[in-house]
Amino acid sequence: MPQRRALLAAPFLALAQPARAQAFPDRGLRMIIPFPPGGAADFLGRVAGEHMTRTLGQPISIDNRTGAGGNIGTALAAQGERDGHTILLNGVPLAVNRYLYAALPFDAERDFTPVAMLAIVPNIMVVPNDMPATNVAEFIALARTRPMTYASIGNGTSLHLAGAQFSIATGLNLTHVPYRETGAANTDVMAGRVDCMFQTISAAAGLVRGGGMKALAVTSAERVPAFAEVPTLRESGVDLVSVGWFGLFVQSGVPVARVLRLESDARAAIRDPGVAARIEASGSMPRAMPGAEFAVFIAGETERLGALVRAAGIRAD
Fold it and tell me: Is 233 a domain residue?
């Protein structure tokens, strides 16, 4: 009798195997972030990852793989298994690096599928405390009387792109001064060795609030909740919006059902009131954009940034 029961049960067990094999996720996930720990990208990945760990029922480990403007970590993600367990967090570099580097070890459209946008990351225009300009109009007037410089943390970064767009929009001839890390750039702005910087809000917030530098404007279309008293560039008379953005991607070829599961959980994380509040407090703006819409957004950004790079003559370090 036990043998007969086993034989009768065999077909049902066979039918059950594919269902178990296709369970997702069936183990921990890996989120590759091609940017350093402590920055806006790393913060967003960890905050979203904490929430997604709970809803997916599997841990998400963060793997910071930095270098070459984000290309090293992105190339590593492109080589991952196409089963949905390796996620890439990326942003502007995925759209702009093709214009900055002679060759890339991946193709953004061919190798990746957008899952969901997480957030918009505005920049904030900061100047030394002893600069006589107290608003953007006064800064522009001052810049027409003497040479001016702006800092960034490297060619092709969102800080550089924002400064280049500001120069073009205002007709100013600002000289770009690239740094290799945020601390040195912030120090030189505070000391007046460079005249301004379009810093990420998370990197400038403490210094602005502590009186180390002055904020003149934010680069987003609307004011940023964390700095509601600071006007936008448009409010300040410069018709310009220049923001960073970050979202999640998986390798092309991941089953659609798995992509949709990750999209649903990522968007649920960003819509969670506690997560959204933490993102806003950091100076970013939550955007739970679905993958299809995110893909259209990236296509528009890729075209826009390509035109900017050509107009400004920007190249990678």
Answer: no
The domain boundary residue, chosen from 200, 227, 254: 227
The 10s digit of each residue's pLDDT in 185-209 is 999 999 999 999 999 898 899 999 9
Beta-bridged to residue 32, according to DSSP, are: 63, 88
**Can you tell me which residue has the tokens 């009387």?**
145
State pLDDT tens for residues 266-276.
Answer: 999 999 999 99
- The pTM (predicted TM-score) of the whole model is 0.85
In angstroms, rounded to a whole number, what is the distance separating the alpha carbons of residues 234 and 232? 5
Q: What is the CATH number of the domain that holds 141?
A: 3.40.190.10
| Residue 153: both structure tokens together | 């943390």
What is the rounded distance in angstroms from the CA atom of residue 193 to the CA atom of residue 154?
17
- Spatial CA neighbour of 307 closest among 164, 141, 155, 195: 164
User: For residue 104, which of 149, 72, 63 has the smallest C-alpha distance?
Assistant: 72
Answer yes or no: is 4 within a domain. Answer: no
Residue 8 within any structural domain of the chain = no
Please, how many CA atoms are within 13 Å of residue 227, restricted to the half-sphere of its CB?
A: 28
Let me know if residue 167 belongs to a domain.
yes
Range of the domain at 140: 122-227
Rounded distance, CA 208 to CA 213, Å? 5
When divided into structural domains, the chain yields a total of 2
If we measure between CA atoms, which residue out of 73, 87, 9 comes closest to residue 35?
73
Q: How many CB atoms lie within 10 A of CB 255?
A: 14
Distance, in Å, from the CA atom of 48 to the CA atom of 279, rounded to the nearest integer, reads: 10
Backbone angles phi, psi at 85, to 5 degrees: -90, -5
Q: How many CB atoms lie within 10 A of CB 271?
A: 12
